[in-house]
Amino acid sequence: MPGFYTRKGDEGYTDLFGGRAAKYAPRPEAIGTLDEASAQIGFARAVAGQERTRLILIEVQRDLYLLMAELAFTPELEQQRYHITAEQVERVERETDALSDETPLPPQFILPGDTLSGAALDVARTVARRAERRVVKLAHDGDFDNPQALAYLNRLSSLLFILARYEDLQAGVTPLRAKKPNDRI
């Protein structure tokens, strides 16, 4: 039985469908950041207090897995199987809208960290935003062409934000304002 490791990456390169690339190249960097986002979302799912949150996050993790597969194909290989679609974007929008209708938001910036589940979701949101920046760079450089994936990642941060506030609300916690009551900033 072969070992768990392959030694193929020892020189700092990784396999993509269609060739090899330096591990620090934009495409592996984007895939790695999406993987990091999925792991952080998994942590948020593990500490979530609400089953609804956990179910939403499972679908998001599956979407990110699909997006990582999509990005693993170099632009020269046209494949039709792995793509983020408009339907996935619409699902995230529906979830975000439904949660927004049920979760009042304070009219000012807040400090993350009032509940463990909310804080985990806020960290996931920041990692998802970084992943979005990596994928947008690929698109702007002409190395990736799926506008739905860009829309999905843009909507994802909103979903994670409202899920964090939903978890806070369900825990009976009012988010802490970023500004002190008398600050003029």
How are the elements arranged and paired?
Blueprint (H helix, E strand, L loop, with lengths): L12 E4 L2 E4 L3 H22 L3 H21 L14 H17 L7 E2 L4 H25 L6 H24 L5 E2 L8
Antiparallel strand pairs: 1-2, 3-4
The tally of beta strands, per DSSP, is 4
Element string (H = helix, E = strand): EEHHHEHHE
Strand content: 5-15%
Count up the helices. Answer: 5
Number of domains: 1
CATH architecture: Up-down Bundle
Structural class: mainly alpha
Measured between the Cα atoms of the first and last residue, the distance is 62 Å
Radius of gyration: 18 Å
Share of helix among residues? 55-70%
Largest sheet: 2 strands, antiparallel
- How would you write the strand order of the largest sheet? 1-2
Seen as an oligomer or otherwise, the chain set is single chain
- Class, according to the CATH hierarchy? Mainly Alpha
**Can you say what the CATH homologous superfamily is?**
Cobalamin adenosyltransferase-like
- The CATH topology corresponds to Hypothetical Protein Ta1238, Chain: A
Mean pLDDT across residues:
89
Question: Which stretches are low in confidence, meaning pLDDT under 50 for 5 or more residues running?
Answer: none
Q: What spatial form do the alpha-carbon principal axes imply?
A: elongated
